[in-house]
Structure formats: C-alpha cells, structure tokens
Specification:
Low-confidence stretches: none
Mean pLDDT: 83
Largest sheet: none
Number of strands: 0
C-alpha cells in the first residue's frame, strides 16, 4: 500500500468541505436547468426515481462503508482482510438484490403513479445495483486520509453526473434516457473502484483469505448500525414516500425543491462528522473523556457558527430565492422551505458522533427505530391535516425528538451536568449575532429591484455585518483565517 501524507483534523475537514462545495457549485446548476427543461410532473418523476434508488442503495450497503471509520484506524496489518471482505459483502448483497427486485420490484409502481412504470423498471434495478457497488470509494478516501482525493472525486463525479443527465435529455428528450445515463456513470465508477482496490489492497474475493475473528467483529459492529441506517432511511424518507402515494408527481417536485435547505450546511455537517468520529474514537480508547467532550463541543460550536447565519438569512430571503432559482412555478415551496430550514438547528448537535465513536450502535438503532415510527405516524397525520405543508411540520417535530434522545445519551456517557451539557452561552450568542444584520437588509425588499440584485446585495451586506460581528466578539479571528489560508496556498504550491 502506498504511503499517504498525514493531514490534521482541520485540514481533513477543510479538504472534505472544499471538495463538496466545489461539487455543489457544479451540481447546483442541475435542478436550476432541469426545471426549465422539463415540466413539474416529469421533474417530480425524476426525483421519485432518485428517492427510491438512494433508499435501496442505503439498504444494500448494510452500513459496511461506514464501518470503516471504526475499524480502519486500528486495523494496521489487517487492512487487506478488512477491505476485501467489506467489498465482497457489498458485492454479494448487490447480486442477491437482483432476483429479489425482479420478483417484488413491481410493487414500487405506487410511487410512480404519473408515469408508465414499466419503462423505468429495468433502469431502476440496474441503477441500484451499479450505484451500490461504487459507494465504498469516497468512504475509503476519507479513512485513508486522502482528503485531496475526495475533492477530485467529488468534482469529477458531480461534473460527470450533471453532464450525463442534461446531455442525455438534450439528445434524446426523455427522462428515461436520463436514468440510463446514471446507470452508465455508476458502472464506470464501479469499474474504477475495482482497479483501485486491486492496486492498493490486493483485492481478494476468496473467503479463505479472511480472518474469521475479524469478520465476526465487523459483523457484530455493523448489524445494529445497518438496521439503524435502514430504519433511519425509512423514517427520513417517510414524508416523501407518503407524499408520493397521496399526491401527484408535480406536488412531489414542489416539496423536493423545498427540501433543498442550505446546501453548504448539508455538506459541512457530514464532512466534519466523518473526520471527528475517528478522533473521538481514539480519545475513547485512551479513556480521555474530557477531550471527547471538548472536541464534541468544539464541533457543535463550529457547526452552529456557520449554520445559524445561513438559516436566518435564507429564511428571510426565501421567496425571491425560490422564484429566481426555480421560477414562479415553484413559489408554493416557500413556506415549506422556511419550516424545513429550522431543522438545521437540531442537526448541528450531531448526537450520533460520540455514540458511534463509543460503539453505542444499539442505542443509535433504538433511536432510529423510534424516529422511524414517529416519522411515519407524524407524516401520515400531519399530511392528512395540512397537506404538503404538514410533511414539513412532521420533519421538524421528529428531528427535535431524535436529537434530544441522542444528545441526552451522550450527556450520560460523558457524565455531564445540565450547565456543561451543551455550550449554551456560545449557541445563544451566535443566534443573537445572526439576527443583528436583519434591520439592514429587510428594507431592501421594499425597493422592488430584480431578484438577482436583491439577493446579491442583501447577501453581501449580511455577510459583511456578520463577519464584522464575529471578528469583534472573537468568534472568528480574521487574522488567523488569513494566515491559515496563506499557509494552505503555500503548501499546495510546494
């Protein structure tokens, strides 16, 4: 195996975040273009296809890629067995999926009520198979600490995905062609993964080459995590599944647009967690619970510092933003968008980070099972009471309950009192700082200027004020940021 350059935690997070932001900038154009190429019904059908495909892929991976965060740092000479058996198990599950899908796949027709499902049937099955096979790649780059590889991968993959989708539609003029384009893209990625594993880990699919004890350890760790991931994904997507059953694809398109939330925040959270969990795991093995608490609080502070201003800002400018990006056809998404934005405040707590590092996967599963039940029940009740808006109400209600359960367990594990359970003072101050720029941007809405100019000007004003406040209150030291950025550029040039 080749030697890798070692990166600090901040550098790893920076690389992961940068890669996903760059990828976001490319991927961001796709829905903006698609809503102008195809009508709401076809766009909703495309989103339903992705919804079911991603759900099935999550089920089939059985949390195996995620398990690498726990086992890889301590595997050492066992890396060969770890990687080989992980890939083999994903392959075996994916192959087993094929006959099951052929027998039961037609039951998915309920989620494609506005389409001729028969035309999508085989494309969906093959898409799930090939996409499942390549999900290991990014996780592998992360645990290898090849954070720069993550940038290249995200940029190349996202660029190809956007190009394949839009190109397929422009050439063939059908959403079916778009789905087959995704199949081809993920097939290419899965082939690259095989070559990468052969080169770096001498990939072997021979079961006799594995260590039974190590295999048992991995299975013991992942089964509650995998069941939890399946349950979590059912719960997380319950609102969308129920909406698909009761509403037309065009309504599903509106709700999905509202679910876009704040892309940068959604990228930052998993990037931080993926890097933090192995470090917390190390502190846990050393019995250093003080550093565990400090690192967890530091993560929460950092995430809230970035996300709170974004939530406040996007909540205020939601209507012109939706109209500018997705046209007047999607203005109904505005109130839904505002409600869903509020769930980000709960997500900053990242309750699973410490629990995963401590190996408390059974409790995570219990929480996810509870969340799934609440999501299904909540989505059904709220959607029947309030329509599409009810799905958003259900999301924020269940999200608050889920994170409370997770962080309360963390509190007990670390022996924290209520006062030091969370960094209360910092969180309150950051929220207050986020509200201060509003009197300066709200009057701009009265000027009736074009949406682009209003959004650009208000963002610049808001950003300048919030950065000034952060600097003056020592939340953010701009001099340190400047020095780190300079050093980063110098290192890259070297």
């Amino acid at each position: 195996m080749s030697k890798n350059k070692s990166y600090s935690l901040k550098e790893q997070v920076g690389y992961l975040f940068s890669g996903k932001v760059i990828a976001l900038g490319i991927q961001f154009l796709m829905p903006v273009v698609l809503v102008r190429l195809i009508d709401k019904s076809d766009y909703g059908a495309y989103l339903q296809f992705i919804l079911i495909g991603q759900f099935l892929c999550t089920v089939l991976t059985f949390a195996l890629p995620t398990s690498l965060y726990f086992f890889y740092p301590n595997a050492k000479e066992k890396l060969y067995q770890l990687i080989s058996q992980t890939y083999f198990l994903i392959l075996a599950i994916s192959i087993l999926f094929i006959p099951i899908y052929l027998i039961f796949g037609n039951y998915l027709v309920v989620f494609f009520d506005d389409l001729q499902f028969n035309s999508l049937y085989y494309a969906l099955g093959i898409y799930v198979f090939v996409r499942t096979m390549c999900l290991l790649l990014e996780h592998l780059f992360i645990v290898e600490q090849k954070s720069n590889h993550v940038i290249y991968y995200n940029v190349l993959y996202t660029s190809a995905r956007v190009s394949f989708l839009i190109g397929a539609f422009l050439i063939f003029g059908s959403i079916l062609a778009m789905f087959w384009a995704l199949v081809i893209l993920h097939f290419i990625t899965s082939v690259y993964l095989i070559f990468y594993l052969k080169k770096n880990y001498s990939l072997s699919l021979k079961i006799r080459d594995w260590k039974r004890s190590y295999f048992k350890s991995q299975m013991k760790y992942i089964y509650p995590l995998a069941l939890g991931a399946i349950v979590n994904n059912i719960g997380k997507r319950a609102d969308k599944f129920i909406l698909s059953m009761y509403f037309a694809a065009s309504d599903f398109a509106i709700y999905s647009i509202a679910n876009l939330k704040i892309p940068i925040v959604n990228i930052l959270f998993p990037s931080v967690s993926n890097v933090i969990v192995p470090q917390i795991s190390k502190y846990h093995h050393d019995g250093n619970y003080i550093e565990v608490k400090n690192l967890w609080h530091k993560m929460i502070n950092g995430l809230f510092t970035i996300s709170a201003p974004f939530v406040v800002f996007f909540f205020v400018i939601a209507k012109p933003l939706i109209i500018f990006l997705y046209t007047e056809d999607y203005v109904e998404a505005v109130p839904i968008y505002r409600i869903i934005l509020l769930t980000i405040f709960t997500l900053t707590l990242r309750g699973t980070a410490v629990l995963m590092a401590f190996g408390k996967t059974k409790f995570i599963f219990i929480t996810q099972l509870t969340t799934m039940i609440l999501n299904i029940a909540g989505a059904y009740v709220f959607i029947n009471l309030f329509g599409i808006l009810g799905a958003a109400f259900s999301l924020i209600f269940v999200a608050a309950i889920r994170e409370f359960m997770l962080i309360f367990k963390t509190k007990r594990l670390l022996g924290l009192s209520f006062n030091n359970w969370l960094p209360w003072k910092n969180l309150f101050n950051i929220l207050l700082y986020s509200l201060i720029p509003l009197p300066f941007i709200l009057p701009l809405a009265l000027l009736n200027m074009p949406h682009f100019f209003f959004l650009s000007l208000s963002f610049l004003i808001y950003l300048m004020i919030i950065m000034t406040i952060y600097h003056k209150t020592k939340v953010l030291d701009l001099a340190i940021v400047k020095n780190k950025l300079t050093n980063f550029i110098i290192r890259k040039n070297d």
